[in-house]
Amino acid sequence: MTATKTDKPAGDGRDRVDFKLPSGKTASMLKLPTGKDMRLAGRMATAHPTDQTWLNFCLVAQTTLIDGREILPDDLDDFSLADTNELIGKLQDVTQGKFPASTPSLP
To answer: To the nearest 5 percent, what fractions of the chain are helix, strand and coil?
Structure first.
């Protein structure tokens, strides 16, 4: 089963933190993901329910826009390892509350 996009509109009004990936792409990640984001990512992860890496890919896809566009977990397969590691590292920071409310976005 292939993952599908969820109800995560780019202009959803939720606070995001923007950062550059090593490739130069711009990522925009939710500052305060919710349980709903986890649940929706879990729905995307049904093809590989015991694979923690796949769940992380699903969480990144659920909470992140790349260059202003939604991504699917499968898209991360084609990202450089540097970009993928950066996204998963930022996701861990977000889920641990390490992004302060005043984190500036990129210009």
So the answer is: 45, 15, 45
